[in-house]
Amino acid sequence: MDKKLINPVWHSLCETHKLFSLEYEDVKFYDPKICPFGAFTNASKTAIALNEYAKLADSFFLVSENEIPTFDTNFVILDKKIEGCQMVLENFIEVEITEQIVPLSKIHLEEIYKLIWLVMPGYYQKRTFEMGKYFGIFKNNKLIAIAGQRMQTNDWIEVSAIVTHPDHTRKGYAKQLTAHITQEILKENKQPILHTTKGNTAIGLYENLGYKLTRDMNWWHFYKK
Q1: Model confidence at 122, in pLDDT bands (50, 70, 90)?
Q2: Which of 4, 43, 143, 203 could form a disulfide with 111 if both were Cys (CB 3.0 to 4.6 A apart)?
Q3: CATH number of the domain within which 21 lies
């Protein structure tokens, strides 16, 4: 499993999400309508793959632990390297669930999309919903907090899209949703993992639920030129 966690996008596209995969030599991308993420096993092959993928998407990411992708400045622009980290559940620490946590469905697509883009813009597509299960908390019939599943293999599922509306933060919603979706993954006998940016204040929250920092995981953000 650790081998798969070193290159999570690649192995997700080899296994659970292979139907979403667009393959270039030694490089795989998600269908950009699902998720603008790609991964590689040979950095020397990424330039051609990026050029091809840029015909389909204006903005996209390559994800790697420490390898540096090559790219063709005639066709794509490197916007930035987002320094991230991977966390893996070591021992789940249960928390009291006081809120009603609701499974989300296609009828909630617009609300999910708007809330995620309000809090964490840049990567979520409306069909990202198809990657896994999503759960939410509502107040006055309005969706105000979400947690979902993203990358998956036969061994693990990634917790993702943990967002709370700015008017409803510091009330424990993210912690309860993360705990709930972690339990849902454990019910499937799979390992919960997640990714976040280095220095994110939410790392402490995840550690309090039993997640442990395991490795760097960087997002190289490109634009079509």
Answers
A1: confident
A2: 143
A3: 3.40.630.30
